[in-house]
């Protein structure tokens, strides 16, 4: 891996040290040093960010990973403790504690990534392609004058990646030939977080980030107003082991309750096709597809979903796909492992009887 | 105030794309091309803001080969006032990256001085979801990405944007000038009527080149190959719910 990295040492200069210390940057390049921009919630690093750590490990086994966390309050510092012991390769946790970073506003966050990269000269900057990562990373990349790679699903070499294009109907292998850092957002369902237990002795140091770059100019232009969240008891759609999805065939918001009950019994998350969202059966954030969430659960059950290209883009990597549809010609059957050509309401009723509530 | 809208010509969303046998990309010759659906939503939103008195003029811009003029004509037929066509014929192995597009759009924005730039949140061909964010970063303007609702306050020179984020809807307030990218839910784009399509033919499309705009196009990405995604193995059609449950428990072992 190290030899490979040396051979590929094309281009010149690196990161923030671009001109002043090219030699240092070149010696750094032999070893991947990744900055993972992480999200946290309730004092823990989010699972999608743990997947970004797995991606950093896939770049180079001997790499050093710095984790960047931002926000304010006790939850941030608890999350920093979690990050410090979350992965054997984590060598440092950078904590940016400021009210300005409490909400995921792109303007201060992009400045933060820019500033941290200037100081750290990382070879790779990685975020998960959540709405947070997709909002910030390209802006930070523009400030650093580099081209990021979106939605990486596989890492072939430290600078060679596979990413889906055309709604997942083609896989594109690209080589990043620009200067450091190589920035990317990763598809979290393609990288499993490491499960090996960390020993207490391998806790990485936690460092506070110098926030002097934050000026009125960077934080004054946008303000956060509020977040209307869909409170749900069920598992997070993007990370659920089982997903049950309804399409236009469910006919009404009330009928979606049946699906929710089945999800409850299975411990599953509920998803929806664009048709179901547009018809107002469920909120937008349940949409699975090219423009919604990308899921890859162990079991994906689609009820009354026809299987348009844009929907398949969001679920085709599921391990087992079950389709229930009256229309035997529905495209969903072309990707389904198990299909039932039947009335979905009859099937739902029967499933609800035969899969009792686990609680 | 002026609104600048960036539009892209892409393979029509309903086309099932085919990977070229030489694996250099997908087949785009003799394939139906259309305006990127998110860009249509961007044009529609700009027109609605103009119709509501929020803007005086809507300027559409695109970057691409000669044929991209068709996409601009579509925007003009929908109701845009005039258009800017940045002529660029990309090399398939080194496609124009969002960073280059953002640099070109910045140059256009510095000439046109819009109060708002609206783009789609992503193009459905490269699925990058980067250009708007990069443009905002280069201009040092605030950004409202994945917008599902936009309210303009001309007095205060502010835009309130509802954004579709994971887990719900986030509302933010931006100082103008700003960059907004559209989500699918923002609006339902109008169809261009025949009289408007005829009228659009006489509207002005200004042609420029990246050189005219002093933008150096650099590509830091090399496409090594493009492949078909792995095919899923053929599934089976079952006859009953019992059979399904049995398969899920004993064959697939996911229940």
Automatic annotation (TrEMBL), chain A:
| Gene Ontology BP term (one) | fatty acid beta-oxidation using acyl-CoA dehydrogenase
Q: How is the cofactor bound?
A: Binds 1 FAD per dimer.
Q: Which superkingdom does the taxonomy of this entry point to?
A: Eukaryota
Q: What do the Gene Ontology cellular component annotations say?
A: mitochondrial matrix
Q: Which residues bind FAD?
A: 248, 273-274, 287-291, 304-311, 325
MF-aspect GO terms: electron transfer activity; flavin adenine dinucleotide binding
Cofactor(s) needed, names only, are:
FAD
Q: Where in the cell is it found?
A: Mitochondrion matrix
Q: Which keywords, in A-to-Z order, does the entry hold?
A: Electron transport, FAD, Flavoprotein, Mitochondrion, Transit peptide, Transport
Is NADP tagged as a keyword?
A: no
On assembly, the entry states: Heterodimer of an alpha and a beta subunit.
* Protein family membership: Belongs to the ETF alpha-subunit/FixB family.
This protein is called Electron transfer flavoprotein subunit alpha
From TrEMBL, chain B:
- Report the InterPro entries cross-referenced here: ET-Flavoprotein_bsu_CS, ETF_a/b_N, ETF_b, ETF_beta_N, Rossmann-like_a/b/a_fold
Please give a single GO biological process term from the UniProt record: amino acid catabolic process
The coenzyme or cofactor needed here is: FAD
Electron transfer flavoprotein alpha/beta-subunit N-terminal domain ranges (all copies): 23-217
Q: List the subcellular locations.
A: Mitochondrion matrix
Q: Which domain of life is it from?
A: Eukaryota
* Key words, A-Z: Electron transport, Mitochondrion, Transport
Among the entry's GO cellular component annotations, what is one? mitochondrial matrix
* Molecular function, one GO term: electron transfer activity
For this protein, the record's PANTHER family field holds: ELECTRON TRANSFER FLAVOPROTEIN BETA-SUBUNIT, ELECTRON TRANSFER FLAVOPROTEIN SUBUNIT BETA
Q: Which family does it belong to?
A: Belongs to the ETF beta-subunit/FixA family.
Oligomeric state and interaction partners are given as:
Heterodimer of an alpha and a beta subunit.
> What does the protein in this record do?
The electron transfer flavoprotein serves as a specific electron acceptor for several dehydrogenases, including five acyl-CoA dehydrogenases, glutaryl-CoA and sarcosine dehydrogenase. It transfers the electrons to the main mitochondrial respiratory chain via ETF-ubiquinone oxidoreductase (ETF dehydrogenase).
Report the protein name in the record.
Electron transfer flavoprotein subunit beta
* Organism from which the protein derives: Panicum virgatum (Blackwell switchgrass)
**Which taxonomic lineage does the organism of this UniProt entry have?**
Eukaryota, Viridiplantae, Streptophyta, Embryophyta, Tracheophyta
């Amino acid at each position: 891996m190290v030899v490979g990295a040396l051979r590929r040492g094309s281009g010149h200069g690196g990161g923030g040290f671009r001109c002043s210390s090219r030699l240092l940057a070149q010696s750094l390049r032999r070893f991947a040093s990744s900055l993972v921009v992480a999200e946290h919630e309730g004092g823990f690093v989010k699972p999608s960010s743990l997947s970004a750590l797995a991606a950093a490990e896939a770049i180079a086994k001997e790499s050093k990973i710095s984790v960047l966390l931002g926000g304010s309050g006790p939850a941030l510092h608890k999350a920093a403790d979690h990050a410090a012991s979350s992965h054997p390769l984590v060598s440092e946790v950078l904590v940016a504690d400021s009210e300005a970073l409490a909400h995921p506003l792109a303007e201060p966050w992009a400045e933060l990534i820019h500033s941290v990269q200037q100081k750290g000269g990382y070879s790779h900057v990685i975020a998960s392609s959540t709405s947070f990562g997709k909002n910030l990373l390209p802006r930070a990349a523009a400030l650093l004058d580099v081209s990021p790679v979106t939605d990486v699903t596989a890492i072939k070499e430290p600078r060679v990646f596979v990413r889906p294009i055309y709604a997942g109907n083609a896989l594109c292998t690209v080589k990043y030939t620009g200067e450091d850092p190589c920035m990317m957002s990763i598809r979290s369902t393609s990288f499993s977080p490491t499960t090996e237990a960390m020993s207490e002795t391998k806790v990485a140091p936690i460092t506070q980030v110098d926030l002097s770059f934050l000026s009125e100019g960077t934080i004054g232009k946008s303000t956060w107003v509020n977040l209307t969240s869909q409170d749900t008891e069920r598992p997070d759609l993007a990370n659920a082991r089982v997903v049950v999805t309804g399409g236009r065939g469910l006919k009404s918001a009330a009928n979606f309750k049946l699906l929710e009950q089945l999800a409850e019994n299975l411990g599953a998350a509920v998803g929806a096709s664009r048709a179901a969202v547009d018809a107002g059966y469920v909120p937008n954030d349940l949409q699975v597809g090219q423009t919604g969430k990308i899921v890859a659960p162990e079991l994906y059950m689609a009820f009354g979903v026809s299987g348009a290209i844009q929907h398949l883009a969001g679920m085709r990597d599921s391990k087992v796909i079950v389709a229930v549809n009256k229309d035997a010609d529905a495209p969903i059957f072309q990707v389904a492992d198990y299909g039932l050509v039947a009335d979905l309401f009859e099937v739902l009723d029967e499933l609800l009887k035969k899969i009792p509530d686990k609680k | 105030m002026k609104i600048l809208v960036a539009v892209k010509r892409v393979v029509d969303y309903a086309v099932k794309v085919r990977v070229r046998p030489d694996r250099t990309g997908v087949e785009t010759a003799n394939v139906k091309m259309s305006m990127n659906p998110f860009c249509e939503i961007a044009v529609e939103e700009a027109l609605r803001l103009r119709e509501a008195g929020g803007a005086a003029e809507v300027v559409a811009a695109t970057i691409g080969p000669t044929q991209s003029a068709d996409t601009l004509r579509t925007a003009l037929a929908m109701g845009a006032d005039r258009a800017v066509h940045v002529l660029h014929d990309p090399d398939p192995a080194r496609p124009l990256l969002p960073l280059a597009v953002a640099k070109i759009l910045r140059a256009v924005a510095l000439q046109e001085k819009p109060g708002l730039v609206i783009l789609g949140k992503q193009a459905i061909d490269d699925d990058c979801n980067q250009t708007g964010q990069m443009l905002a970063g280069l201009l040092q303007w605030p950004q409202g990405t994945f917008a599902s609702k936009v309210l303009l306050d001309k007095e205060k020179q502010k835009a309130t944007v509802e954004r579709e984020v994971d887990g719900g809807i986030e509302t933010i307030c931006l100082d103008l000038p700003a960059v907004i990218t559209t989500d699918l839910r923002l609006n339902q784009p109008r169809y261009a009527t025949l009289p408007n399509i005829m009228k659009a033919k006489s509207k002005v499309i200004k042609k420029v080149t990246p050189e005219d705009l002093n933008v150096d196009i650099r590509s830091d990405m090399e496409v090594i190959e493009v492949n078909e995604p792995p095919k899923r193995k053929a599934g089976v059609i079952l006859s009953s719910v019992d059979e399904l449950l049995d398969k899920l428990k004993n064959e697939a072992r996911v229940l």
